Predict the structure.
Amino acid sequence: MRFLIRHFLQMIQFFGALIGNMGWKPRPSSNAHDLLKAAWISKFIDDDSRVLDVGGGNGRRLSDLSLYVRDLNGVSIDVYEPEQIVLPIDTMKAPEISTFDGISIPFSENEFDVVLVCYVLHHLSETHSQKLLANATSVAAKRVILLEDSRPTFDLPYRLRNWAHATESNLLYEARSDDFARNFKHSFKTHNQWEEVLKGLPSVKKVQCVPLDQISRYRHHTMFVLDLN
């Protein structure tokens, strides 16, 4: 009887909240692991920073970061124009949203304190990736932060996963933008491989590899923090 009463009360709660919230449109929300990643990224961003998110889509990541970084001044650029812009929270300045060609970042040298490049580089060819990284370090004054699908090693199941992810992304993004370059030679790299590439960039002083497997849904999420000269 206690079991039935509890479930009856839970049904009342569910339908009461459902009916009571009819007509209310919440801002697009993030998953818990996205908010946790934003919390970790925020450790490397000072309050009142100007932040560029390369490949930032509708600005959701900047919105997440604004929960942890006060007075965040954000700009998001991508190769396609998002269908829906994430509305800013009360404490956040509305992010600027614009498009670019996927290579040339249309801002001046050192214009941003921090540049984010999240889950972008593994979709690109080696040459394309190097050009975009060079442009990212040019417009950043202090730091570049990368999020990548990276692990210490990639076994067969993960190589299959990477192939499927990259192929699916080709189909998705080429339908959204003429500036998306289809690529079948993807740049999935291990931790050591990324560190070797990033340390070779002329303006990079220090590279930190921060695995995010403890806070993410899957074990391939990794942050690389590049401190600049």
In short: The first strand starts at residue 50 and ends at 54. The chain has a mean pLDDT of 86.
